[in-house]
Amino acid sequence: MLVLKRDDKPIPPWWSDTLEVGAGERYDVAVFATNPGIWMFHCHNLPHAARGLVTHVGYAGVTTPFRMGRATGNDPE
After folding, report:
1. Domain spans of the chain, in order of start
2. Which pLDDT tens digit goes with each residue over 34-57?
């Protein structure tokens, strides 16, 4: 991803695979999605992920045989 702003203020952009976001911080990033699939954007702090700091990003027309959601029995999901 290309990191563009921090707390709504432009910053010198940089490329990164990960980004540490502190409490109350906000970053604007550009993600160049060129590898079709269903990808999970997530926090590496598992209690945060369990509280919902996770999302799935997918491509139109791309499917998966795997199930997502609590019905899978995965915890946290």
Report:
1. 1-32, 35-70
2. 888 888 888 888 888 778 778 888
Query: pTM for this one?
Result: 0.64
Task: Identify the pLDDT of residue 52.
Answer: 78
Do 18 and 3 meet the contact criterion of CB atoms below 8 Å apart?
A: no
Alpha-carbon Rg for the chain, nearest whole angstrom, is: 15
What's the rounded Cα separation, in Å, for the pair 64 and 42? 19
**DSSP secondary structure code for residue 75 in this structure:** S
CA nearest neighbour of 62 among 29, 39, 31, 42:
39
Q: What is the DSSP string of 5-73?
A: EETTEEEEEEE-S-----TT--EEEE----S-SEEEEE-SSHHHHHTT-EEEEE-TT---SS--SGGG-
- Give residue for tokens 């409490």: 23
